[in-house]
């Protein structure tokens, strides 16, 4: 049985359309979904929304919720800023590109693989040439 939120919302919408009261919907859903059942207050809230005329079972995006900005253009822009100035901070990059500091942090550390060493951004993984030069220096 599908116990996802959207599936449970569809059940709430159906039972509410049949005229079931919210407390009865909660009891019936608790019997079926057990631990995965939505909270009582959530079921009551969705019942109110359907009574008010809502027909969509999906969440609306929050107005302040960021859209996906981690695309190849943004990643290359962050990489270019770091290559121009190795001492640039994540906050300065965020301001420059008008994206959140968390997104910048994700791009720098997860996508590009950089880390700070002595206040400069350096790649975490050495290239083959860098590994050979390091072995030669030893």
From TrEMBL:
GO CC annotations, alphabetized: nucleus
Ranges that cross the membrane: none
Q: Which InterPro entries match?
A: Homeodomain-like_sf, Mos1_HTH, Transposase-MT_Hybrid
Write out the annotated subcellular location. Answer: Nucleus
Annotated Mos1 transposase HTH domain residues: 7-53
Q: What's the protein name?
A: Mos1 transposase HTH domain-containing protein
Provenance organism: Araneus ventricosus
């Amino acid at each position: 049985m599908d116990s996802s939120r959207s599936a449970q919302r569809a059940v709430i919408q159906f039972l509410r359309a049949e005229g079931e009261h919210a407390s009865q919907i909660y009891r019936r859903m608790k019997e079926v979904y057990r631990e995965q059942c939505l909270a009582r207050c959530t079921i009551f809230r969705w019942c109110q929304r359907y009574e008010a005329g809502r027909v969509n079972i999906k969440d609306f995006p929050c107005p302040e919720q960021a859209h996906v900005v981690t695309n190849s253009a943004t990643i290359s822009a962050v990489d270019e800023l770091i290559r121009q100035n190795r001492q640039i901070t994540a906050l300065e990059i965020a301001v420059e590109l008008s994206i959140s500091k968390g997104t910048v942090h994700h791009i720098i550390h997860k996508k590009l693989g950089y880390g700070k060493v002595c206040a400069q951004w350096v790649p975490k993984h050495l290239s083959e040439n860098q590994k050979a030069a390091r072995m030669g220096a030893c």
